[in-house]
Write a structure and sequence with these properties.
single chain, alpha+beta, 14-stranded mixed β-sheet, two-stranded antiparallel sheet, 8 helices, 16 strands, globular
């Protein structure tokens, strides 16, 4: 569909749009003291699709310049919601090329078009970085013909390494994990109902056992073919910290400006009784088994594992979690267990 005297066209993305979408990702970065550019590789549409069962990605084309100037949409996947697998949509956020920001005036129409694509989803949600205050202020204000951004709480992503063999860990012994999926992970809202999404990365499964039962476990995946984090620069206290040998103190080594971070994504983390020491010992022992510069893992504010992760030596950044409501809100009760690997 066309807008603004036919200058712009809004439509679903096609395979031929990969170059234009990639250029938009390369034109922006996370703001704040840690300035990071989030990229989705040579074929961003493949990256979106890997995160779920479907990718409803929209693009806005400038017909006068014959190029893509904005991209946004949602990834649809099966996730646990109040104990049952449901079709849920994670909104990826709208990215606009810097030279077109403030020029596109039909955002409400774009949301309506997206709503049509997601009409069979039980729940839609998204996250916005804490430092993105301008977008937060804009979206939290209720506007006519726009969905409500219903604040659910705070989500923290942790970056760590400090690899050290403290306890022995097993690799790719899945005995007992299926039971945990049915009992533990199914109780966490927005946890993927399958471990087989390619967006989790090329992964290995690590575990610690007591009397044959899993005491702690997780997957660690290599996402380099689908997602990259490029360090652009440091501000605030991180400008000084980035020059120190932080690795010897158990913190991740800060990458140089312009460097692609060699990261591994932790998913489906389970620690019996959310024990602080077991969590730290397990993750540090897993880290040494990998060749990643750092590992990323996230937890929502009401997830009991958050306390254990906060006890570790990490670099962290925060996001706000919202349900995106077009009609009526979903009743969401209990712990939320979003995977950072799929954000």
């Amino acid at each position: 569909m066309n807008f603004q005297n036919d200058r712009y066209t809004l439509r679903l993305a096609e395979s031929g749009d990969n170059n234009g979408i990639r250029e938009i990702f390369e034109s922006g970065n996370f703001s704040g003291d840690l300035s990071i550019q989030f990229l989705r590789g040579e074929k961003p549409l493949d990256s979106f699709r890997a995160d779920g069962d479907q990718a409803k990605i929209l693009v806005i084309c400038d017909n006068t310049e014959n190029r893509i100037v904005a991209v946004g949409g949602a990834v649809v996947r099966s996730e646990f919601l109040n104990g049952k697998p449901e079709k849920c949509a994670y909104l990826t956020g709208l990215k606009i090329h810097p030279d077109h920001r403030g020029k596109i005036t039909f955002i409400a129409k774009a949301y309506q078009f997206l709503q049509e694509q997601l009409s069979d989803c039980e729940c839609c949600y998204t996250t916005i970085l804490d430092d993105n205050k301008k977008v937060i202020s804009m979206l939290e204000k209720k506007r006519k013909n726009m969905p409500e951004y219903r604040f659910l709480g705070h989500y923290t992503t942790f970056c760590f390494h400090g690899g050290k063999r403290i306890i022995p860990v097993e690799k790719n012994n899945f005995n007992g994990f299926e039971k945990l999926m049915k009992t533990h992970f199914s109780s966490k809202n927005f946890t993927p109902a399958s471990t087989e999404y390619d967006g989790l990365g090329r992964k290995n499964f690590y575990s610690v056992r007591e009397n044959g039962e899993i005491a702690a476990c997780c997957f660690i995946g290599d996402q380099s073919g689908l997602k990259q984090y490029k360090m652009c620069g440091y501000g605030g206290i991180y400008r000084a910290l980035s020059k120190l040998p932080t690795k010897i103190f158990g913190y991740p080594e800060f990458p140089k400006a312009g460097e692609i971070i060699r990261h591994g994504a932790v998913s489906f983390l389970y620690v019996r009784d959310n024990n602080d020491k077991l969590c730290a010992d397990f993750l540090r022992s897993c880290a040494v088994e990998t060749d990643f510069s750092l590992l990323i893992c996230g937890a929502f504010e009401n997830d009991p594992i958050l306390h254990a992760l906060e006890k570790m030596r990490t670099v962290r950044y925060g996001s706000r979690l919202y349900e995106v409501v077009w009609d009526s809100p979903t009743e969401i009760s209990g712990v939320i267990g979003i995977e950072a690997a799929l954000l």
